[in-house]
Amino acid sequence: VGLFGTISDTADFSVKNLKIKLANIIGRDDVGILVGNFYDGLIQNVEVHGTVSGRDNVGGMTGILSGTFKQGYSYVKVSGEDNIGGFTGVVWDSCDDCHAFGEIELADSSAGGFAGAANYTCSIKSSSSHVTITASGAYTGGFIGSATGGCSVNYSYSLGHIILGGYSTGGFIGTADNITITNSFSAGDVVSNNSRVGGFAAAVGGGSTFSSNYSRARVVTGTSMVHGFVPIVSTATLTNNFWDNSLVSDTSDSGKYDGLTTADMSNSVNYTGWDFTNIWRVNSGQYPELIKY
What we know:
This protein is mainly beta. 0% of the residues lie in helices and 58% in strands.
């Protein structure tokens, strides 16, 4: 359900240079302001404003994103049950320079400021979420709720607040299984009424790789297994990841994801292996920023 219900089996089809305002989209499954199920083709330079509500696979821009999306902006309030995202409910393919702003309300599982779920070999880069999330169910992330199947995320960030998350809540991603995240960061408050709460991620496994990321999220509360970067790691590779330990008291697991003071976070010499020529910059008294932005 959306301006387009489905865009499918049309690799040569494209939507470009479109703005939609004051939308109010109500559906059941696969719901977005622009398109419910974007199966194939290209969407570029599209901006949407409005409200979206449904049950499963609900996003501000698309319900399911399985084509190529470049340069998108979503300013929305989204509500639903499973796989709820500020930009897309589920992403299976490619997003480049896409951004979500607004609010999310979730009843059951997998809510993310950008995408509720990221599956298969999707690729997300140079994208961001600025979304406030209220979620009563499991798997909540400031950027992605849950991800699996070989996805990659690069040069992206989350600035939104999770004012309530359930089981497995992370400032950037809730749960990650066989996913690669590099050169990304999380900020904002993270609040949960359950266990497994992290400033960047709640649980990482399945052969995932996290490198050159950081968290400046303020982890406010969780019932157990709370950490400034990630509390649960199993069969994953984490290198050169950092978090502000002035915001969270847990200082364990040094070497995989090192806690730095707020003052140390503003000094590039403390970020082992990072590229401060082409990817990152940092000014005195400030946190690192991605050069692209």
